[in-house]
Amino acid sequence: MLPKEEFLFLWNHATIKVLDIRYELFKPEEIGKSYKLPANMFLYATGGGAEVQIDLINYTLEGFHLIHGGKGTTLQIMATDKGFEYFLIFYRASIPLTSNKMIARALQTNNPFNYQYSLVPNSPITMFEKIYFMYKKWENANSLSKFIVKSQFYQLLNEIFMQLDQDSVDIQKLNVSSQIKAYLEQNYAQPLTLESIARALRYSPSHLSIQFKQQLGCSPIEYLIQLRIEKASILLEKTNASLRDIAMGVGYSDVYYFSRLFKKRVGVSPTKFRQKQKVSDLIKDSPSMSERYSIVDWSFQDYIENGYQYDERKYEPMNKRGLSAFTTLFLCLTLLLSACSSGASTSTQGGEKQASTTQTVSESQTKTVSTMKGDVEIPVNPERVVVMYYTGDVLAFDVTPVGSSKIQEGAAFEEELKTVESLGEWFEPNVEAVIQLKPDVIIIPSKDELYDQMQRIAPTVMIDFSTSLDERLTKIGEVLGKEKEAKELLANFYTKVEDSQEKLEEAGISDKTISIMEGGKGKMSVVTSYTFGRGSQAIYEYLEMKAPDIIQKKIDDKNNTNEAIDVSLEVLTDYAGDYVFRSSYDGMVDLTDHPVWSNIPAIKEGRLIEMDFGFCYYNDIYSLSKQLDFIVDQLVATTKN
Length: 641
Known about the structure:
- It is built from 24 helices and 22 strands.
- It is of the alpha/beta class.
- The strands form 5 sheets. Strands 1, 2, 3, 4, 5, 6, 7 and 8 form an 8-stranded antiparallel β-sheet that branches.
């Protein structure tokens, strides 16, 4: 039965255009093909056989068989030794924009053109004749032939829908996660990023990531990492390939990074994992050892591949008899392993000594910091710092991070970040890229989902957005091992604030009102808070300048939750102060000749100051210091004109 009434309802409202009709034949010696569907498609198999996969759904085709697939899905065909013969009909279905809410709602929830289904036709020869007729007409490629093809296509649809209505057919909706999973299954060994995956599948990175998370509960990169680890586990278990070859085979060029990532995900290093599999096989082949193994819980000493760090796993014996069984089993397995491994003879006593030494060094080089997520153990002086959003605060300590969230163009510290790896948006970074940087510590704003991702990679310090500048700098200074520098930074900053206020006082403009605006297409966004960026914190909080009364009341209102409000250009004059700062960016509306804008006194008399969006976007101490210089210089300059 059809999945819902909307299926035919939407087909009835659609405009259909046949885009192409193809005939293809795989000879027995040929294998097949794989490609992404450029449009919606019907595949009609007419001879031979093949294993066909559309995204992750498999079909075994023999003889006459029809499959429908949606645009963007990945079609794979593996012909059998009989060869494979089939037709492809590509079409586009569109529904004109309409105010009919029923159509819009149905299209959103049950888009029939994205459904995936297959059926064996009740009248295979009749269907073949229709499709073959369409194919021959399509070869003529004139307008009349295409019109005839279109009319025949509707007849074909009629036959298909009649059978769908009568038979129980499994109809699958096309979803983004299936497309991504199919793409990753094929390309996991390639160097992939969220951006490259999105580009290949023709989605925006944000849309692709959001849809995938909604459907599978994890990000595409998280899924890719897990997929690679699963593939690597199989290779470790089933082959004797070197770690380097296995790492390369699943998409990692750095074997050390691969080993570290594998242990983080699996709990043991790749070499340890392989050893356990060998021991398991040995036990299976030896009934007497299998009996003992079922009695005693046993494990080799854990260690990190290439890390030289040992951590002995201890087990409490149930009784003396259990301890004897443990000792016997350990000796047996040691002898067996020495016979099948290549000359690795390290004494247990020596290993314990090394573990003890390493542990002592490790403990002496770490410290515990208190965070909003509890106590976090971090290196005393972290060298590889990854930071999301608070980049300017970290730079202020003369610490260049190894990775940072994406920086707005024009930011005060843009030049300093040119050699630093960009990790994407702060709230949705490229997780794999962060892992590859091997950070000592990660500093992030308050977002639980982000914290859950980052704390799995390295010690993560989360700092609330609402934290004051003093508290934030003090905490970051503690994390970086630069507590003294934090005090100096704050002292120097507040000295600059006092000097800036004095300059404005001397220029006679400290009592003037200031408005901050952005936009211009029929309305302007007017800043009504000192926490919104756009220079608001520097102007309203630190320089202590006022806005026009209509804005200042909102700024002073502790219950005000609107950091900015939209104001139509017709009444914008009421919101304009003695000076107007406008957040500027490429492509913003040109208001030069707008009668209302041009007649605002501040604009008309040359007291408009353009401030780059990226430059005034951040509220870190590095940016605030630069913003203070710019704002004061620009304000003072207007008095000299």
